[in-house]
Amino acid sequence: MPKYMFIYRGGQEKLKFASPEQIQQVLQMWMDWIDQGIEAGWVLDAGDGLKPGGAIVNMDLTVTKDELSTESGSLISGYSMIEVPDLSMAIELAKDSPMPNSGGTVEIRELTHNGKQYK
Amino acid sequence: MKQSTNQLVEHFFRHESANLIAVLTRAFGMRRIDLIEDMVQVAILEAMHAWKQRGVPENPAAWVHHVAKNRILDSIRREKTYEKAITLSGLSIASQSINAQESMVDQWLEKEELPDSLLRMIFVCCHPSLERKSQIALTLKTLCGFGISEISRGLLLPSETVKKRIQRAKHSLATANVRLELPSDDQLTQRLDVVHDVLYLMFNEGYSTSHGTEPIRDEICEEAVRLCHLLCESPYSSPSTKALLALQLFHAARLDARTDENGAVILLEDQDREKWNRCLIGTAQSWLANSKTDQPTTFHFEAAIAMQHCISPSVEATDWNSIVNFYSRLIHLRDSPVYELNQAIAMGQAGDTGDAFSQLQNLRNRDDMKHYFLLDCAFARIHELEGNTKAAIDSYLTALTKTVVPHEKKLLEKKLRKLADLR
Asked: What are the pLDDT digits (tens) for B268-279?
């Protein structure tokens, strides 16, 4: 079965001004969605969130840091590993995720080898 | 980290943010309240982000406390004027290092220490220098952790109004650098009276059906009860505090029975008494018994009336004579046409429709009651008790010509339909 990576992007902006209760609701949606996936078997690895900050090393060996703050709306904020029969299935699952709701996107990319070993 | 059926305690973030704001403001001064609120928000967002895929840690409160505390300490360390600021924050610890303050914050955040900071914050939010409306809004924001939009939905006010009110209140407290102190003995009664009024009004804001029945309003009631309970459990409460808590609990016991599945309001006489929360009624009764005093307040008599309703199996079986007497005591304490109106209804229910009518007639001559639709409803009620359906219908029709909000209108129309069927 193909494996996909879900790449979560953005969504921090919208939550910045949310109330504690709204933030808790979003968190609960995430935990429910991941729990569902673990139970149904399509979550291979829930993955993790990525902290803002860090660095980019460019080809000329300069280092960029300022583009990795939460201010930039398209920051990658986390990833998960998913296992489903095809892309359309993965798309449906991503639609159900809390990401679109919190103003972010989910990028879906299939793994090349799906973890297969060469004989 | 566990990976199954994650569930945070209800309102966890809302209450943790209130706890943190109370403790951090106590440590770093009212003048930093905006900064503190921002840092608490950052900590909550970080928690959400850290837990959303991996689940909630063993001790989520400690996690959030730790992050929020470090965020605020980092930003204070960046304040060049730190030494000066400490002197200003009203803590005579200019010589103390940040580390000493940090351990104080840790201590205040401990479970058994938390109520102390919250109590102090209650007295700050109900500071006599603020207007009543600001006190309520500030309490909802700071002590209950509601957001602006939630408060505006709960109080039925435009967001901008709520925002301005809270900002003004915070600004005036910060300018005066009001300290998170508990009132001295000679001030306590006075300060407590203000807190009681705020909690009473806050509960009513949530409970009053004239504003509709949004779930957020039930939460406002719950919060008023929570804060009142906190106060009752402290050495700073009085018999009046306990009576107020009893009153709130008697009302809270009926919350679920007050609306039908469509969210329409059901009046006391039509409520399914099976749905009333017996456990809350019992708790309310023990608080009321606990509130005995030689000088009972309006809270005592209002609670006594609420109790009579709660312990009666039906409208008919209610001890209306006692209720009439309690209203007399209330009117003696505070001249209020609303008390008189309710007393008249109780008189009618007790069988004295003549007295009821003459009392209502007196109210009709008052400018502040003339246009009050509930006065016509009271007339209608007494007519109904006398079996005079036609007069009752006329009174309800008159009520409809006064200012009524949409769902009250619905309620009146329902009444009219019912009466029309009787004829």
From this structure: 888 999 999 999
Under the banding of pLDDT at 50, 70 and 90, the label for residue B6 is low
> B304 or B411: whose pLDDT is higher?
B304
Give the integer Cα–Cα distance in Å for A20 and A116. 44
Chosen CATH of A6-110 out of 2.60.40.10, 2.40.50.140, 3.40.1380.10, 3.30.70.1060: 3.30.70.1060
Tokens of B13: 């973030």
What pLDDT is stored for residue B216 in this prediction? Answer: 82
Range B73-80 average pLDDT = 81
CATH assignment of B340-422? 1.25.40
B152 in contact with chain A, both atoms CB, cutoff 8 A: no
Is the CB of B53 less than 8 angstroms away from the CB of A80?
yes
Task: Identify which of A21, A27, A38 has the shortest CB distance to residue B52.
Answer: A27
Chain A residues within an 8 Å CB radius of B147: 18-22
Q: Which residue has the higher pLDDT, B77 or A8?
A: A8
Dist. CA A58–CA A62, nearest whole Å: 5
Using DSSP, state whether A63 is helix, strand or coil. strand
CA angle B212, B219, B181 (to 5 degrees): 125
For chain B, what are the domain ranges? 1-111, 340-422
B222 vs A: CB within 8 A: no
> Does residue B6 sit at the A interface (CB-CB below 8 Å)?
yes
How many CB pairs (< 8 A) connect A and B? 84
